[in-house]
Amino acid sequence: MKRIHVAVKIKPVLQSEKENKTTVYWKAKSTNTIYQTAYPNKVFYFDDVFNEQEDNETVYLHFCSSLVRLVIQGYNGTIMTFGQVSSGKTHTILGDEDKKVDGLLFFIIRHIFELIEDLYGNKEILIRVSCFEIYKEEIRDLLSSTNESLNLLEENGHVKVSLLSEHVVQQPREIFDFFREAESRRIKGDTLFSENGSKSHLIFRMVFEICDNTDGAIHISELNLVDFAGLLVSEQEMNEFPKCKNDSLTFLSEIILQLRHEQAKDVNYERSKLTRILKNSFGGKALTLLICTVIPTNLIETFYALQFGIAAMHVKNESKVVASAEKSLICKLRGLHYLNFDPIESAARLQQAQGMDETIKKMISYCEYFLIPVLKMKTYNLKSLCGSSSSTLRCRKSLASHSQPFIIKTKQNVKHHYIPENKKKV
């Protein structure tokens, strides 16, 4: 994958729009083309186009699943949704629990734990998640009770959010709950198209540390889910490229145009915090997928979303696996002799250690309820919990369960691990 891959997902026409005979401006012509109904011969080409009848599972299987597999193999990956307010961006990622519609997040989680189950050999795996939003150039941690504005730091060319909380997870349901918690804290408000539209950019990050004990190599990879703020253009006419009311989206559009025309030397990622954070996803070393969600009854914003996607398809990325133990939490825990002792004794050793960072401090209470090593496993024994196969139905039942977590198989033995209800998050 040497460039950004782009798909278009068309939102179904609402029943009220059908009754009012609202004009439909856009239709899918094939599995990779969409056209404007007034000009049937003018076709827009993409890597995939999903029509109104195709659900989120189809989007995941045909467009996203290969990227998730590569992330577990050590590559960095980003999946983004872009489009106007109410076009289905958040619905695509999260789904609709009331209507029992699964989003991409459900299928990502299921796939990740199936891949972990299939890992062979002597592996150590640790998963941690974080989430933040960007609104009017302010960064806020969505998994923290504080409402502080956070800053960006750059280390060895890698941009990170300072003091952002991270949470170690080992159950599918925990990842899902963290995302829902973050989404509930997101800044929303009335817009022209929605009474509860998202006004901020949301970035949900999953970090995977995979240690191969045969050679000691540690691969640290991350998967970012990015839900952009709703697209609102300031010029209601079909020009070449959008000028958005959201400045950070305008800056991102300009960077994409520069990269499209191979003007990488002229790109200024410093213009906004959003572009700084996504530097690795646009013209960097990450595998990047962009899903443009569009409303077929809207002419202008849909046109601009398609233009954005077409330009993004020309952006080249150079992805590669990097073996590094520098930022590994596994190594930090090893350094504190954490992995080889009884849980209570290990917690006591942690309390006595000097110079602990905040992530390790937060893990002390977490570790009191788990056998050591944390997430040290050859495989997740999903079959013992879900039956002979991890079907969608069985996985959904597992996600719905708060009392019976997945079973961890360690090098020494296999035991059931439970967390008291009030100790699920650290």
UniProtKB/TrEMBL annotation:
Gene, per the UniProt record: KIN7M
Localisation: Cytoplasm, Cytoskeleton
Protein name as it appears in the record: Kinesin-like protein KIN-7M, chloroplastic
Family that this chain belongs to: Belongs to the TRAFAC class myosin-kinesin ATPase superfamily. Kinesin family.
Annotated GO CC locations: microtubule
Matches recorded under PANTHER family: CENTROMERE PROTEIN E (PTHR47968), CENTROMERE-ASSOCIATED PROTEIN E (PTHR47968:SF75)
Positions that bind ATP: 83-90
PROSITE patterns: KINESIN_MOTOR_2
Gene Ontology terms: biological process: microtubule-based movement; mitotic cell cycle
Kinesin motor domain sequence ranges: 3-315
Key words, A-Z: ATP-binding, Coiled coil, Cytoplasm, Cytoskeleton, Motor protein, Nucleotide-binding
Chief site of localization: cytoplasm
GO terms for MF: ATP binding; microtubule binding; microtubule motor activity
Database matches in InterPro entries: Kinesin-like_fam, Kinesin_motor_dom, Kinesin_motor_dom_sf, P-loop_NTPase
A Pfam entry, by short name: Kinesin
Organism: Caerostris darwini
SUPFAM superfamilies: P-loop containing nucleoside triphosphate hydrolases (SSF52540)
